[in-house]
């Protein structure tokens, strides 16, 4: 057996997800992309097979198998269908506020239902005027008679209209900048809450991306996550742990594209031999494989760090680097996969154009690649490496 970073138990669970992906999700992928319909059948499959549980601890009904394996599961599903991989990544994204900042009561009320997949989750930070600069948000929440009243809107929210629970960030003190932001759990049937519209997108077509409107939306005071004013910090802690989910989606797309291009290049003949034997194509395949494996190294390192329980502040840079490299590799590799298939790469009969369209979003959401670079550089500037230069004349 080839060398593998996963333990025997982790390999068995990966095999389970891989088989489900190959046998049950792959045959649906092109249809999900073409229909632009949210794949509830895939959600059902994840529920039946306990796949959502891979993201949760045993005490709330999960498998307790840790971060690395959860990332591997997103990767495996995304190899065949990035929309389906995103369902897993966003269940984690939308649950992290509870995991990291929820009270015992809030966690007990929601985590078991999220672990089983009975309820789908969403994370609502971005607004029309505030994406990268999320602290510039304008949605407000004011106290009123033991409740909060939310007014404003959120843009580009994944799982809009299919989620039962939204983690929503709003300003409880609009004059206090970052320190004036708080986080709330908002149920989909909260009065004054509605999904105003859904976007038509380039890729991940089966995933819903929508605008949320809060018009005097009332939520109980007990739905606030953590103390008032801690929402921005919580939003960033969530992203440190969720970005690797996007990285895993990107990695899966890159590997899926590489595998498909390899098989194609083995059999497509030009000038008397398979194109894989033309050196320019062989070089592309070698670069695709090498970049994808390098990206996997960074991502799995994050998973191992999280499972080893390293201090939270060490995760920030590791997470951003994994997201940056996996996203960029997915875009490069899928573009090359289209090139290897030539004209067949450009038409919908073959999956690589879908891989290329799906790859693009991994460079944009959960912080653009530019934002990842800002995060990495900021963390580097906190580090001291002067000792390395001590002996340099
Ligand atoms: C399909 C989809 C799903 C999404 N899902 C969610 C979700 O579930 N929840 C959620 O909260 N959000 C979600 N988003 C929003 C996403 O995270 C934002 O679109 C993203 O963070 C970028 O924000 P923006 O679109 O406002 O771009 P802007 O912030 O306006 O950025 C525009 C460009 O300027 C660059 N830029 C901005 N600031 C700087 C800077 N300081 N230095 C250098 N370059 C800079 C950016 O990198 C980008 O290239 C989703 C978006 C999409 C398209």
At the fourth CATH level, what is the homologous superfamily of the largest domain? Butyryl-CoA Dehydrogenase, subunit A, domain 3
Low-confidence stretches: none
Helix content: 40-55%
CATH topology of the largest domain: Butyryl-CoA Dehydrogenase, subunit A, domain 3
Describe this structure in words.
This protein has three domains: 109 residues, Orthogonal Bundle (Butyryl-Coa Dehydrogenase, subunit A, domain 1); 108 residues, Butyryl-CoA Dehydrogenase, subunit A, domain 2 (Beta Barrel); 152 residues, Butyryl-CoA Dehydrogenase, subunit A, domain 3 (Up-down Bundle). 53% of the residues lie in helices and 15% in strands. The strands form three sheets. The chain has a four-stranded mixed sheet with strand order 1-4-5-8. The protein has a four-stranded antiparallel sheet with strand order 2-3-7-6, with no helix packed on it. A hairpin with a 2-residue loop joins strand 2 and strand 3. Helix 4 packs antiparallel against helix 5 and helix 4 packs antiparallel against helix 6. The N and C termini lie far apart (49 Å). Flavin-adenine dinucleotide binds next to strand 1, strand 3 and helix 10.
Features:
binds flavin-adenine dinucleotide, four-stranded mixed β-sheet, globular, Butyryl-CoA Dehydrogenase, subunit A, domain 2, 393 residues, 10 strands, alpha+beta, Butyryl-CoA Dehydrogenase, subunit A, domain 3, four-stranded antiparallel β-sheet, Butyryl-Coa Dehydrogenase, subunit A, domain 1
Detail the topology: elements first, then pairings.
Elements: H1 8-35, H2 40-48, H3 67-78, H4 82-101, H5 104-116, E1 121-124, E2 140-144, E3 147-158, E4 165-171, E5 181-187, E6 193-198, E7 209-220, E8 224-225, H6 231-267, E9 269-270, E10 273-274, H7 279-308, H8 312-341, H9 352-361, H10 369-382, H11 386-389
Parallel strand pairs: 1-4
Antiparallel strand pairs: 2-3, 3-7, 4-5, 5-8, 6-7, 9-10
Helix pairs in contact: 1-3, 3-4, 3-6, 3-7, 4-5, 4-6, 6-7, 6-8, 6-9, 7-8, 8-9, 8-10
The structure holds flavin-adenine dinucleotide.
Flavin-adenine dinucleotide (FAD) binds next to strand 1, strand 3 and helix 10.
């Amino acid at each position: 057996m080839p060398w593998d970073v996963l333990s025997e138990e982790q390999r068995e669970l990966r095999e389970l997800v891989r088989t489900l992906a190959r046998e049950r999700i792959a045959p649906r992928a092109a249809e999900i992309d073409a229909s632009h319909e949210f794949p509830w059948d895939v959600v059902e499959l994840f529920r039946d097979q306990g796949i959502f549980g891979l993201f949760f601890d045993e005490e709330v009904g999960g498998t307790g198998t840790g971060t690395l394996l959860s990332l591997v599961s997103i990767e495996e599903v995304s190899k065949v269908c990035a929309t389906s991989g995103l369902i897993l990544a966003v269940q984690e994204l939308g649950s992290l506020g509870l995991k990291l900042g929820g009270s015992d009561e809030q966690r007990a009320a929601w985590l078991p239902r999220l672990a089983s997949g009975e309820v789908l989750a969403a994370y609502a930070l971005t607004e029309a005027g505030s994406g990268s600069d999320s602290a510039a948000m304008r949605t407000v929440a004011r106290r009123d008679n033991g409740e909060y009243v939310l007014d404003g809107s959120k843009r580009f929210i994944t799982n809009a209209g299919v989620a039962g629970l939204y983690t929503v960030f709003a300003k409880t003190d609009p004059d206090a900048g970052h320190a004036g932001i708080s986080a709330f759990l908002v149920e989909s049937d909260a009065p004054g809450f509605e999904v105003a519209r859904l976007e038509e997108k380039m890729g991940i077509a089966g995933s819903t991306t929508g605008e949320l409107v809060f018009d005097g939306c009332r939520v109980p005071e007990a739905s606030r996550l953590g103390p008032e004013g801690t929402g921005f910090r919580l939003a960033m802690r969530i992203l440190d742990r969720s970005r690797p989910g996007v990285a895993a989606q990107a990695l899966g797309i890159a590997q899926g594209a590489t595998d498909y291009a390899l098989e194609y290049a083995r059999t497509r003949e030009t000038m008397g031999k398979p194109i894989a034997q033309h050196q320019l194509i062989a070089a592309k395949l070698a670069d695709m494989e090498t970049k994808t494996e390098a990206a996997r190294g960074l991502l799995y390192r994050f998973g191992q760090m999280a499972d080893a329980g390293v201090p939270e502040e060490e995760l920030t840079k590791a997470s951003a680097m994994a997201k940056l490299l996996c996203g960029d590799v997915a875009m490069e590799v899928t573009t090359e996969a289209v090139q290897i298939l030539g004209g067949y790469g450009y038409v919908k009969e073959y999956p690589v154009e879908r891989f290329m369209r799906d790859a693009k979003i991994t460079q944009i959401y959960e912080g653009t690649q530019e934002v990842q670079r800002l995060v990495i550089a900021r963390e580097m500037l906190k580090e001291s490496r002067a000792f390395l230069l001590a002996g340099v004349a």
